[in-house]
Design goal:
The complex is a heterotetramer, with 2 copies of chain A (400 residues) and 2 copies of chain B (382 residues).
Chain A (H helix, E strand, L loop, with lengths): L6 H17 L2 H9 L4 H15 L17 H13 L7 H14 L2 H12 L5 E4 L15 E5 L2 E12 L6 E7 L11 E7 L5 E7 L5 E14 L3 E2 L5 H11 L7 H17 L1 E2 L2 E2 L4 H28 L11 H23 L27 H8 L9 H12 L3
Parallel strand pairs in A: 1-4
Antiparallel strand pairs in A: 2-3, 3-7, 4-5, 5-8, 6-7, 9-10
Chain B lengths: L6 H17 L2 H8 L7 H9 L18 H14 L5 H15 L2 H13 L4 E4 L15 E5 L2 E12 L6 E7 L10 E7 L5 E7 L5 E12 L12 H36 L1 E2 L2 E2 L4 H27 L5 H30 L9 H14 L4 H10 L7
Parallel strand pairs in B: 1-4
Antiparallel strand pairs in B: 2-3, 3-7, 4-5, 6-7, 8-9
The chains are: A alpha+beta (400), B alpha+beta (382).
């Protein structure tokens, strides 16, 4: 047993860190550090830099542009991106539909889509959730009816992240409403967002931003060749997709970076004639967060290390711990940062691109803090709510 | 001991509730806050007609002579409906400073307008470096002939953008950290040298940064002892906290109500999610947090007029701790139990959550007041 | 609305306080203050003092020895007992079987038992719980078979508090095993502990004391006249008993008294060259407890105040809050007291009557502290566990 | 990075587990602790035969040269079985002081006996007023000819009642609060002037109060610099905390196991109580707390030999915080979920709960270490 990285792993970490530091655009890194959005353009620029280096889809098979790194190297790479901070790749293409296509797609689909995903030539979004189906995904009701060499799709998806930028959407649709189990009549379609009949309506989220959307399908024609795998087998591909990649879920590196930022702010923010950081109780709260974070980092490494011995597509149920604790810590750090700025959480100052161009009220670090706290409430809801994750632990691990 | 409302109190409660029920559902509230001033002048007028703006002032000052319990009733109703009108700013904060510091002549001149709703004032108290401690005020007031000259900047002045006038705390003597040397001044908004920049706040209200450059006021504009305002400021803050506790409880009550309804209505895996025991228990914990907060709201109201400042401050801190913790737990739980719906601007729950958050941060959060309480030896020592 | 006590209520409080102060035996009060047991003898002495004053069963109907006080006076009386501290009356007679007897018993039962309960001439214990039936009380299996003018009782009760001192036990027994619902075949019997066939086996509890027992019934003959009410209707009387008196459940006064003791200990116990009380963080923890306690005190008063308007025997479901929060606070104060003495929680020093007669290890206040913490874990388990109470709130109040 | 055990480590784990499985179920454990010394001399002998008592000592000192990971493996197994033998006292604490402070000659004389299990030592460190801070030690050591004279009282000396000898910390110079001036002395138990009073502890083990009245020791009995022992004492405490973390995790693991089994087996309202979602979630939270504690147990083991004392102390404090919090949550939850069965001496769970409680309080509880960590700037600053 040896918890330290090996010499080779340390060298790898240094190489990754130096490449990121030298290549991530300053404005992009600064936006992340300040808690602002990097925007579509920032993500596209950075993805192309990584893709040129051969690192935009490191976890893919080598023949499709992957690196062949092991789980620990993959983890180090993600961790360094988060620590830098540098954007992680858009998950919808890189983590979700990409692996589905190279595992279950036709040669034509692989040829057509995979390189454009790796280079973010195509911006993908995910059409799974529906208004009537939250955690109970399989009860979805968007219909696709076969008509010759097309499907005609009607229905509605919701919580569709960044659909406003998307070129493509991958959707679960119901192709057999009479299947004996609701999981059995579902197919997996790739749909061009420019197809007539698709309408995107923004949902304004709690912090005031535009991150998610409703997507309406009104007699949308989708060529049959854009179905992945067999008709009515879509649920299998969805399960594969959802179980595929959990190691990034805890976002340890990102939370570490946010703790660094929190300490900077607490040292700068005046209180009681000194700074917030001078308050022992405040420092204890930060320390308590760091303890849980260190514990989770090691738990994460234990899970990653175990992945080398697991078969692909069967995630360790212990990864539910990563989701629960990881999301709680992401929330805790935003909450403490808000406590640090205290009264200066109050002003509502939307980002420049949304029309705010006044000097900041109070300190220049304050504006994104309360929105960050509000927005981060979502992380214990999406991707399988923390309640669902506890069910998984109780059943899959404890056998209750 | 009697937890029932008097006939008059019941009347206040019923009339506010009726008004808000008709004119302040969530959709209308969103329209009110989209109005030019950030709130509805019509609603403000209705508040005045119901006597709400006159509530805490004596009859001599044009008011109704209500006490903390009447204030509690009004604020609790405002909390349920997420009212955005400048009631706390004008009636509780600035009005409170005038009630406690101003002479009979000054009150007779200024308060009837506040009580009738025609005049809306704001309290310009905190500055960039003060956080929640008025002793750290740096803004200077200098004797200038018969009057005074004010220089400095005030920050996060609630509803300062639309106020007709300000009550301003400034330092005549001493340096930041001293509790002595502070004065309160009444300054009409159109006084030369006064500049302001308004902005929206995270909870859907308004505030302003206010600059004072050689602003001149007369001797008649100083409210009480120009170097002895500190105890009055503390008293006004304590009254504001008691009022905020009631607003918070109204909002918590609404969140528990909305969440319970959602749990009954929302179906997943073929059953209402309210059938899941883990969610039932979370809802039960929300209810307990609400009732504990309600008890401390009453304690705050009961203590707001306590003459012993040390006992009063301990009681108010205790209430603020409970309200902050209950509000945070209920707010976070309500959002979580609503799932995706909980994190959009399109539903009421997120707005309650944000208002709770800002109430906790106002005048010092729960941990700040817990530290104060610990320093003073706790609740029983006080 | 007026949260202060009225002048008359304040005068009543003063009268009660002064009587208790003047009359509670010093050794009995000191034992409570130190966290030790008052023993059977201490409780009997104190009960007889109160009974002589006419205050041992204040909540009973006046014709059976009650005082006619209203709910607020009853509450003040309990509160003052706890604050003094002075022992509260043994609940099994005073709160439980006494009210069942005067409500459902025969005149002969009333005449025979009630005065002896009021004076603690008879020590009662409660035979409800069984090994196979915890929170699910109605699934009990102790059998009583009618044989002429007797029942023959066989079975086992458990968690029987202070049965080692008891003269009588009141029991739920199954008289009709074929009843369509398990609640419907149960009867309520009063059993003399001296009857042949009864065996009491001590259960050593977590802190090392002897508080609870198993009670075995082996062909125990119980005269039919010792049945309360109708045969097979015992469940109704049990429900009445369990719902009867909740106002003492939060134990606000007792916890206040424990907080006072905690502060004394924290001021005395050395740490870091000063005392534990000098640590601001420790004082914050005590303050946090006091805040919750003050809130619960007012919640309690609201419930008590509402009782004046409720019909007897239908407890406010809000009293579940009193049980949950009250037990949590009882546990929290014992936990904090243990934190205050820190390392001196370690020595195990049973009380004198159990054979320990050495000088104390460390401070003389330390010995009962850890046992107090351990023992108090039970309060969130018994009397309807806190999980059951949350079910009640969810169902009876929120309608879930 | 490698979370697997080496072949040797696996061997240790398997052999301890096998021994404890056979000789240390709960019933046998209760018999062991009822023995005259408060533990089983036979079990102690078995530990010696397995090499466990020799584990941390170098081969030159008669040991096996194991490191913190080997110690972790042994202590975790002890924790699962609630072992009451004086392993921590003799091997980890007193043995650790000798390892780090004693000369080669002293080690050669004393340690082979400790390593073989024949000699059992105790570390006499804390006093009534020290709480967890060895700098507050007051007991005096005075130069007395070629040797030293020891006067004072030591408190809560783990297994001090049955120890053959003591390592004693005493003050040569300075006053309580000074980190300088402390020395460590080896004192056989039968030395004249040494008195002790043994007693049982809440967690089923033993400890003693030890008095020193003009106890005379030779120059050969001082271990290292007679005024420079403070850093060694801190190091020994940190190693003991790392070992306790592992013991705690072993016990937590057992509690999660017992509770899960109980939930499956115990029926109420016609179903196993493990079918109730609220209890399932509580159990899931216990499991998470266990795994977080396990991670920090590994972190403590990895950090125990960290040469930078500041970084080492921060890491050990962090581990103690996590273990204390996880242990408290798991212990309290395990008792609660067991219901009445959880609060009797007759079942295993209560004994784990009490041991967890005492581990948290040993060497400073979770909040104490959190304060230390906060003072030093947190984990990343270290």
């Amino acid at each position: 047993m040896d918890l330290a990285l090996s010499g080779e792993q340390r060298r790898f970490r240094t190489e990754v860190r130096e490449f990121i530091r030298a290549n991530v655009p300053d404005d992009v890194s600064a936006a992340l550090r300040d808690g602002r959005s990097v925007g579509k353009d920032g993500l596209v620029r950075w993805t192309r830099i990584l893709n040129a280096k051969g690192w935009s889809v490191p976890h893919w098979p080598v023949e499709h542009g992957g690196t062949g790194w092991g789980p620990i190297e993959q983890y180090i790479f993600q961790d360094e991106l988060q620590l830098a901070p540098a954007p992680q790749m858009l998950p919808f293409g890189h983590q979700m539909v990409g692996p589905v296509i190279y595992t279950f797609g036709t040669e034509e689909q692989k040829r057509r889509f995979l390189p454009r995903i790796a280079n973010l030539d195509d911006w993908w979004c995910q059409g799974f959730s529906e208004p009537g189906a939250g955690s109970d995904l399989a009860s979805l009701s968007t219909r696709a009816v076969r008509a010759g060499d097309h499907y005609i799709v009607n229905g509605q998806k919701t919580w569709t992240t960044l659909a406003q930028h998307a070129d493509w959407i991958f959707c679960l649709v119901r192709t057999d409403p009479n299947a004996p189990k609701k999981q059995m009549g579902i197919s997996f379609l790739l749909i061009d967002m420019k197809t007539p009949g698709i309408t995107v309506r923004p949902i304004r989220t709690i912090e005031g931003g535009h991150e998610v959307n409703e997507v309406f399908f009104d007699d949308v024609k989708v060529p049959v060749e854009n179905r992945v795998g067999a008709e009515n087998k879509g649920w299998d591909y969805a399960k594969f997709l959802l179980g595929n990649e959990r190691s990034g879920i805890a976002r340890i590196g990102a939370t570490k970076e946010r703790v660094r930022r929190l300490k900077e702010i607490a040292r700068a923010e005046p209180a009681g004639g000194g700074a917030v950081w001078d308050n022992p109780r405040f420092r204890e709260k930060v320390a308590a967060l760091e303890v849980e974070l260190k514990a989770l980092e090691i738990t994460q490494l234990r899970v990653v290390s175990g992945e080398t011995k697991r078969t692909h597509g069967t995630p360790d149920p212990a990864s539910s711990i990563l989701k629960i604790k990881g999301s709680e810590l992401q929330q805790a750090v935003t909450e403490l940062t808000m406590e640090a700025i205290g009264p200066y959480a109050l002003p509502f100052e939307p980002e420049h691109d949304e029309g705010w161009n006044e000097p900041p009220v109070g300190p220049d670090y304050a504006a994104p803090v309360a929105p960050g706290y509000f927005n981060t409430r979502k992380v214990s809801i999406y991707g399988g709510s923390n309640e669902i994750q506890k069910n998984i632990i109780a059943k899959a691990i404890l056998g209750l | 001991m009697d937890f029932d409302l008097s006939e008059e109190q019941t009347l206040i409660k019923d009339s506010v509730s009726k008004l808000l029920k008709g004119e302040y559902d969530f959709e209308k509230r969103e329209r009110h806050r989209a109005a030019p001033l950030g709130f509805s002048e019509e609603i403000w007028q209705s508040f005045a007609e119901l006597g709400l703006t006159a509530l805490p002032f004596t009859e001599d000052d044009g008011g109704l002579g209500g006490g903390p319990v009447e204030m509690m009733i009004a604020m609790e109703a405002f909390g349920r409906a997420l009212v955005v009108e400048p009631y706390l700013a004008s009636v509780v904060l600035a009005g409170g400073a005038l009630r406690h510091a101003a002479s009979a002549e000054q009150r007779a001149e200024i308060l009837p307008g506040v009580a009738s709703g025609e005049t809306r004032l704001a309290l310009a108290l905190f500055e960039r470096q003060t956080r929640h401690d008025p002793a750290l005020i740096a803004m200077r007031a200098t004797k200038d002939g018969e009057g005074y000259r004010l220089d400095g900047e005030k920050s996060l002045v609630l509803h300062g953008d639309s106020a007709h006038g300000f009550v301003v705390a400034a330092r005549m003597a001493g340096s930041p950290g001293d509790t002595g040397g502070l004065g309160l001044f009444h300054v009409p908004a159109d006084t030369e040298g006064l500049g302001r920049r308004g902005y929206a706040t995270q909870d859907g209200m308004r505030a302003a940064e206010v600059q004072f450059s050689s602003v001149r006021v007369t001797a008649d504009d100083v409210l009480g002892d120009p170097e002895g305002a500190y105890p009055v400021i503390l008293r006004v803050i304590d009254e504001a906290i008691a009022a905020l506790c009631a607003e918070a409880v109204g909002s918590m009550e609404r969140m528990v109500e909305l969440t319970t309804a959602f749990l009954k209505e929302r179906k997943q895996f073929g059953m209402p999610i309210g059938g899941f025991q883990a969610l039932q228990h979370r809802a039960a914990e929300m209810y307990m947090a609400l009732e504990q907060a309600r008890s401390m709201m009453m304690f705050a109201a009961m203590s707001a007029e306590e003459p012993d400042a040390v006992a009063r401050r301990a009681a108010i801190s205790a209430a603020k701790v409970q309200i902050g913790r209950s509000g945070r737990f209920i707010g976070q739980s309500a959002v979580q139990l609503h799932g995706g719906v909980g994190v959009t601007m399109e539903y009421e729950i997120a707005h309650h959550f944000k208002r709770q958050t800002m109430i906790d941060l106002a005048f010092g959060d729960a941990d700040h007041h817990l530290a104060l309480l610990g320093e003073s030896g706790g609740l029983e020592a006080a």
